Model the fold of this input.
Amino acid sequence: MNNFNQSYIALITFVAALGGLLFGFDIAIITGAIPFIKPHFGLNDLQLGWGVSSLLVGCVFGAAIAGRITDLYGRKTILIAVAVLFAITCIGTGLAPNFDLFVIARLLGGLAVGAASIISPMYISEIAPFQIRGKLVSVYQLSIVTGILISYFINYQLHDIGPDNWRWMFASGAVPSALFFGLLFFVPETPRFLYKKGMVDQAFNVLKRIGGKANADKEIDQIKRSLSNTKTGFKELFKPDLRRVMWVGFGLAVFVQFSGINTIIDYAPVILETAGWNIDAALFSTFVIGAVNVVFTLVSIYTIDKFGRKKLYLIGSAGMSIILVIITITNLTGHFKGGLVLILIILFIAFFGACIGPVFWTLISEIFPNRIRGTAMSVPVFTQWIANAIVVLLFPWLLNYGGGAITFGILAFCAIFMFFFTLYYVPETKGKTLEEIESFWKN
Done:
């Protein structure tokens, strides 16, 4: 990075990645609240699933609209609005007097999470020099798992403070939301959006500050060529030159969720309780799980630009498949209990953190053309939130009535499919500029 302004790039990446921290915090904070909101509101299994997955339904709509509006109004502007919505809904969820208002607050919070899940990684990918783009976009996933870890820590610290402990769990998210909002005023709009809106000099100046004049000259010329077609509507997504890349984005989005990562993130205490753990030990173990997720995401940051996206994805999906098959077998044989459960969950998280999570967000932020990246990226993000909502909604019901063997067997089947989909359809994007990746799909 000798030719790059490292401190400036670090600032931009850190600020944009805070959207990921809030994403991780919001999806995981309910993990520790489940044992308390279920009796507080008197919820059955499907109601509990709805309470957990309502955030994800909001994410679906947030992802659906964010891509288009960020192509119209800019990455930075929409991120500022997202930060405000994060703060309001964190407080609103904590203050909810009944289950209906709790769900409404979660749905609105999902709008913010869904929007951030598109815009934050897109922002980083459009700012980052191509040589280190994978590493920098992986910082977004690191922020997600850090947000998850922070939520686990808060859950454990607040689990015994009284009957309103779950309210404080949710409301605490207002603090990082305010930090995100304030820091966004210190970073620029992305050069690719600026160029698309005719602000060529501003785009060049951002590129120059990031990587020097020579780098800016090269990238501005590539951006100019890639934006020769300025059409950005949804109809563009169905044109022949985009069909394959849209198919790849869709497939990645489905399998990343159907392989079960968020059943572990959201229901780890429930899974551990079914294996004989008490609630205190189960909540503490979720903190251990979150720490493992952070550590192995760091591994991905140091390997993604070295080994490449596709190789890591194949290793991760193979490892997750094996662990899920073992979990299925131990459920069938009655050995899914005690410390073995935590070991298997940790191994599953390790494969996901090191190989899948960061690579998924990197791939979908870089494979789509400049002229339509926001709109196109909304499709896989929208899809993965729908898949996530379905899995999280049905998991407690399926675990209770179908049993562990059937539940984890289905997840194992999907993880195996993810391996073969990656093997046959996903290209390697390591070491290519966004414009070179765009040319690959055209050819």
Q: What stands out?
A: The radius of gyration is 21 Å. Residues 6-442 form a domain with the Growth Hormone; Chain: A; fold (CATH 1.20.1250.20). The CA atoms of residues 343 and 384 lie 27 Å apart. The chain has 17 helices and no strands.
